[in-house]
Each structure stands twice: as structure tokens, then as C-alpha cells.
Design a protein that fits this description.
By secondary structure, this protein is an alpha+beta fold. The chain folds into 2 domains: about 50-230, D-amino Acid Aminotransferase, Chain A, domain 1, CATH 3.30.470.30; about 235-340, OB fold (Dihydrolipoamide Acetyltransferase, E2P). It has helices spanning about 10, 95-100, 125-130, 165-175, 195-205, 275-285, and strands spanning about 50, 60-65, 70-75, 80-85, 110-115, 145-155, 155-160, 185, 210-215, 225-230, 235-245, 250-260, 265-270, 290, 305-310, 315-320, 320, 330, 330-335. Strands 11, 12, 13, 14, 15, 16 and 19 form a 7-stranded antiparallel sheet that branches. Strands 3, 4, 5, 6, 7 and 8 form a 6-stranded mixed sheet that branches. A 4-stranded mixed sheet has the order 1-10-9-2. It is globular and about 85 Å long. The protein starts with 8 loop residues before the first helix and ends in a 12-residue tail after the last strand.
Length: about 350
């Protein structure tokens, strides 16, 4: 006759404490779990612009932050804060550096955005630039916070081959216990469908939303794993000249803008609003150093008193739409992009 199975102690007597088996000493011959070398830099995953949000349970949604893309490297020897272009900006963000040092982790790489929030909690690129002293400035920001949205390396392990859901789970475990209002904060995933979130984001004056494929690994470049859907269009353009006006701030009537078109530049219109008095004079001083006698692109306009420039300054421009002849509509100047930020100038197909 077959004996019935012996009940386990947990089921036999609920009053007795549950004990695990005695731990055996580790066999010295057993190999340790191999650790991945920490990379000096990881090429960032970039969001592909789309007109409408994607649908389906595979997509996770976040608010789109308007700031500088950074990677925070935490190592036993210290913290490095690296820009999208690979430049070391650790000294520019002392509060973020201090917050990274305080995190309970030995090695990590956090992907996110440095932002300055306005009085309504919205990220403001202009305020961020002011805190850093403008383009080419050397100020140390005293009010920028880091909105972390990905974890690429953690305690000796490369996470770029792991799915987004796994990376986010570990990121939340690292940041959430530390509180939510420090100088490093979690960029929250919003439980809503894309269309609803986009509508709410636009109603609150935000730039837009980001959609991310939950099952995607972390791949550098603009490959479609991440998508951006904007309320208001905002892109980077070359400043190729300015219209002189003695009545305007900095004597700048308007800035003449260009996009890339293959190996050439294409004129896309002008912008005459968005810069304050101090910014206008600072901009004028920078432009006076890069003047040239002839336009750097084909220009058929009839503007008078135009000063042409070497196409080295990159402006972030907010606009509503494009005209039928390829010009920006209702454009507004937001600020200059730093070379170290590696901003991509708008490309015309």
C-alpha cells in the first residue's frame, strides 16, 4: 500500500515558525556571476516624431520633458554627468551630482533629462538656459532637477539587453524609496491611453508625450522604439542671419533660420519674438563675431538690412505649423542649443 505524502511543516502546524534549510558554505570552486564592464558612454535612444499616439497594451506613456538629455554615471570613484553629445557636464549640475552620490547603489547609469520647472511644475527650456548662463555659459545650475526615465546599468550589470519593463522596475526600486521631490526624480509612467494623455498634456501647456515599447531593449538612435507626439512643434534650426532694426531689442528685427536639406541648407523663414532684452543683446554680441558678406544658402527674399552669419548658432524654435511653401508659422525663439548638447538640426526630406 502506498504511503500518503507527509504534510509540510507549514501546513501541519501554523504555530511553529517557518525556517529555511541551513545555508551551506559556498564552494570556492563555484564561479561568481560575471559582471559586465561599465561603459564610458551609451549612445542614447532617441524618440521618433509621430503625429498621433500609438495604440495597444505594448505602449507605455510619459510626459515629454523640455530640457537637456543627460546620462548620470555613478561609479565607486565618483559621479559623471554626460551630455547627449558625450561631453562631461558634471560641474554644471552640482545638485544632481550630490543627489546621485546619495543613491543607494555602487554602480549605475541613469538616462533622463535635466529640467527647470516653472511655478506650475512644467519644464521650461528658457529657464534651464538662464540657470546655466545661456549658450556657452559656464554657470552651475542651482535649480535644475533630473527627471530619470531609464536605467541602463545597475550594480555591475548591463541592462540595455533587458526589456523596458524590467529596466523601469529596477529604476523605480532605486528612486521611489528615496522620495519623490529631490534633485533626482522618477519620470512617472502615466496610466492612460495615448490620446487621452496627449489631450490632457496639451490642455496643461506641456510640450507633449513620449510613447515607449514595453518589450523593447535599449538601442541607440531614432529607431521607433520610442515615439514623441507634440502639442506644439519645437525643433532646432541654424541662424543664418538677422534683420537689423534700430527700434528692436539688440537691434534684432528678426532671426533668419535654415534647416538641412541633403548637403545644403534651406531657408525656412524668420522669428522675431521670444527673446528678452538681455538675451537679445547677448545674442547680438555672439552674432557679431560670425558675420559674413554673402548668404550661406540660396535666398530669394527681399528683406533689407540683413546681416549674414556663418551657420554655427543653433536655435530652438517653437512653431505651430508649416506653410505650403515650406516656412514656419507662428514661430517663437526658445533659446540657443549648446554644441555639447548635440542637438539635431531639422532635416527637410
Amino acid at each position: 500500500m502506498t504511503k500518503p505524502p507527509r504534510p509540510k511543516p507549514l501546513l501541519q502546524d501554523a504555530d511553529k515558525p517557518v525556517r529555511s534549510r541551513p545555508r551551506k558554505p559556498r564552494d570556492p570552486a563555484q564561479p561568481n556571476l560575471p559582471l559586465d564592464p561599465m561603459p564610458d558612454r551609451i549612445d542614447p535612444c532617441l524618440a521618433l516624431l509621430k503625429p498621433t499616439p500609438p495604440k495597444g497594451p505594448q505602449w507605455a506613456f510619459e510626459v515629454k520633458w523640455d530640457g537637456y538629455r543627460l546620462a548620470v554615471h555613478i561609479e565607486p570613484t565618483g559621479v559623471r554627468i554626460i551630455t547627449r553629445g558625450g561631453h562631461d557636464w558634471t560641474q554644471r549640475f552640482p545638485l544632481i551630482e550630490a543627489a546621485a552620490r546619495a543613491l543607494p547603489v555602487t554602480t549605475a547609469i541613469l538616462d533622463g533629462e535635466a529640467v527647470v520647472l516653472d511655478d506650475r511644475g512644467r519644464s521650461d527650456f528658457g529657464l534651464l538656459q538662464q540657470s546655466l548662463g545661456g549658450r556657452g555659459g559656464k554657470k552651475r545650475s542651482s535649480n535644475a532637477v533630473f527627471m530619470a526615465f531609464d536605467l541602463l546599468y545597475f550594480d555591475g550589470h548591463d541592462l540595455t539587453r533587458s526589456e523596458l519593463d524590467v529596466r523601469r522596475h529596477l529604476l523605480e526600486g532605486l528612486l521611489v524609496p528615496a522620495g519623490g521631490q529631490g534633485d533626482i526624480r522618477l519620470s512617472e509612467e502615466v496610466e492612460a491611453d495615448g490620446e487621452t494623455l496627449l489631450r490632457i498634456a496639451c490642455e496643461h501647456g506641456l510640450e507633449g508625450i513620449i510613447a515607449k515599447d514595453r518589450h523593447s531593449t535599449y538601442r541607440g538612435g531614432r529607431l521607433g522604439d520610442w515615439l514623441k507626439i507634440k502639442c506644439i512643434q519645437s525643433d532646432s534650426f541654424f541662424i543664418v542671419g538677422y534683420e537689423i532694426s534700430m527700434a528692436a531689442r539688440g537691434h534684432i528685427g528678426s532671426l533668419l533660420l535654415a534647416a538641412r536639406k541633403g548637403n545644403d541648407l534651406a531657408y525656412v523663414g524668420s522669428v522675431g519674438t521670444g527673446f528678452k532684452e538681455s538675451v537679445a543683446w547677448q545674442l547680438r554680441s555672439m552674432m557679431d563675431k560670425i558675420k559674413r558678406k554673402t548668404p550661406p544658402l540660396s535666398y530669394a527674399g527681399r528683406r533689407k538690412d540683413v546681416a549674414w552669419l556663418q551657420p554655427t548658432l543653433i536655435a530652438e524654435i517653437e512653431y505651430r505649423a508649416w506653410t505650403d511653401d515650406g516656412k514656419l508659422r507662428h514661430s517663437s525663439f526658445k533659446g540657443l542649443r549648446d554644441v555639447q548638447d548635440n542637438a539635431a538640426v531639422y532635416e527637410i526630406e
